[in-house]
Hints:
2 copies of one chain form a homodimer.
Chain A: E1 7-12, E2 23-38, H1 46-58, E3 61-71, H2 77-95, E4 102-109, H3 116-128, H4 135-141, E5 150-158, E6 161-170, E7 183-188, H5 194-206, H6 210-213, E8 223-228, H7 241-260, E9 268-276, H8 279-290, H9 293-300, H10 306-314, E10 326-329, E11 332-336, E12 339-340, H11 345-352, E13 356-362, E14 368-375, H12 379-386
Parallel strand pairs in A: 3-4, 7-8, 9-13
Antiparallel strand pairs in A: 1-2, 2-3, 2-8, 5-6, 6-7, 9-14, 10-11, 10-13, 11-12
Helix pairs in contact in A: 1-2, 2-3, 5-7, 8-10
Amino acid sequence: MRLPRGFAASGVRAGIRKKRPDLGLIVAEDGATAAAVFTKNLFQAAPVVLSKAALKKTGGRVKAVVVNAGCANAVTGREGLEAAKRVRARAAEIVNCPQDEIFLASTGVIGVVLPDKKVTDFLPDAFARLSSGGVDALSHAILTTDVGPKIAQASFTLGGKRGRLVGVAKGAGMIHPNMATMLAFVMTDANVAPAALQRALKQAVDRSFNSISVDGDTSTNDTVLVMASGKLGNETKADLADFSRALESICRELAWMIVRDGEGATRVMELEVRGARTERDARLAAHAIATSPLVKTAIHGGDPNWGRILAAVGRSGARFSTKRVSLSAGPVTLVRDGQPTAYKEKDAAKVFARERVPIVVDLGGGNASALVLSCDLGHDYVSLNADYRS
Amino acid sequence: MRLPRGFAASGVRAGIRKKRPDLGLIVAEDGATAAAVFTKNLFQAAPVVLSKAALKKTGGRVKAVVVNAGCANAVTGREGLEAAKRVRARAAEIVNCPQDEIFLASTGVIGVVLPDKKVTDFLPDAFARLSSGGVDALSHAILTTDVGPKIAQASFTLGGKRGRLVGVAKGAGMIHPNMATMLAFVMTDANVAPAALQRALKQAVDRSFNSISVDGDTSTNDTVLVMASGKLGNETKADLADFSRALESICRELAWMIVRDGEGATRVMELEVRGARTERDARLAAHAIATSPLVKTAIHGGDPNWGRILAAVGRSGARFSTKRVSLSAGPVTLVRDGQPTAYKEKDAAKVFARERVPIVVDLGGGNASALVLSCDLGHDYVSLNADYRS
């Protein structure tokens, strides 16, 4: 795949991870307008702290992105900040731009200071390999326990011109409820002002990545960055509707890929809680279901054990009348008005055996709703996480 | 083990579960003063609904307890209530007491109506087998995925007389955050008025079972019942301090057994969050850590991956300054004032390899604290829960 006009990328091995590419570089040839959303975790990794401040200082300008896997550089105090600053300084020299136009991102083990010399030693190599087709190498260099790379593209019409969006992401971890770091970088040739870009991103993230991580339930490093090179040459006053739709679509596709690639995951639960009195109630209920190990293991086993779903809703803190609750899995209604229906076990089992398991819980008390994607919990998750660091 | 004076118990096979005892009976020969705490889940099982109402009507009198495993009789609507009522009516006939003095409890799969005929068919058999030593049979008849029975005893001095407490419990499930049903029945020969008994129980539960399930985070059937036969013959005005201490001790011992017997558990994390500004902050942080699959799998692997612990605290919603956080595992301080210490990996690994893993997180911002017990998450948990119903 090729990047939108104005961007080049690369991915190399810097030796932070054993025998796997672990250093990615994105350069916007003539710079780019940028907008980002970051983790709400109180522990914010050094690269998050620096990138957030830099973006504010520049008013939304990014020239290059340096991203590494293998080390999150989080909860590393002053030392971690200094290491990240050294990377930033070296990148600014190589790319030839102000330091604040360097955007940093890291993913990997928490509590270990970034081995910045490995990064700076290999930055010239990454710079030399930059190309429009380098997005594939980039997509590999940012992975941790991900099974495979995640790339998506979309096109849009803006001010009468046809533009492109290309996004890369990494996720894994079980994402939900304990996100491993989620990183996403979206590049476009559109010409969009920073404030408008931020608004479009915020909306796209709310309807995609935030439906897998749920408010604030984020790791120390989560970052979603969108960069617009402006090479499309559209008027900045052009109607952004189609661009925003395409941005949302690409974010949803990447979010789906992240959930599907949850550690050890074999199925995705597409969960909707509707009929809630307030959005908060809907989110509480959806969160309780999506994070329940009992529900996630039942999904893993393809077992339509819906009692676990309702038990999770009942303890979630959401307010509702148990006599009005209904629950369905795909076309099969399992519970209506708080009572089990005469459904056939075989029909329910069929839905739970799918790769996508659609579950709808209707609280029967209002109009608020919440959508969440979650994956199953299987043996591979335990194997991957019981000894992740060794 | 023998029950305190005034009680007899039994356990038999009624055919609800395959080839395992599943029906327990406790009878207080001359009745007992009783107090109970129930699940806060909005979905309350039929036996919970009936027992709660009955206890209120009688002002705290119980003659007999009928408990079954294999079917929770929860989310079963009117049919489930009718089934439970038929069990209650038959038990009242057999034991010869008012229906409201029959206390019901069930545990097992949610969403299936209790096969009450199996219960009523075997109640006479259970009645015939009642004995003071029947507590062992009882302790087996209430189990589901528990590895083994849970019995504890304690003694106390009340009004100058030496009395006894005997408790049986069942737990399993991962308990936390999705309790499988937790049931506990405690019997004593003490003579205690219902209101005083309820106060003592409330305090004991707050310091034991509620430290494994955390506020409201309960299944549809959770029940803790204490019954006092009064056979000790003490004055009701006697000082309850030693009795309360013994009751708390027995509840703590049963709670510990429940966590240790968490499905697939090999270790218990003894977690303390201190230095919080408010108790709510302490509980939020403790809850986030104790329920984190990433933390629980790390504990399973004996891996001192403390970054996952702090990441959980950071997203918990608790308010604190990241620069003041300290974390230790047993005698090893891993993080001080938000920065990793120069601890030896070997020393940390030793603590995480214990059967009891003591973790202290100090938020450095106040005097509130919270204690929680949690177990690790391993392959056996997945195996047990991916196909629990078959």
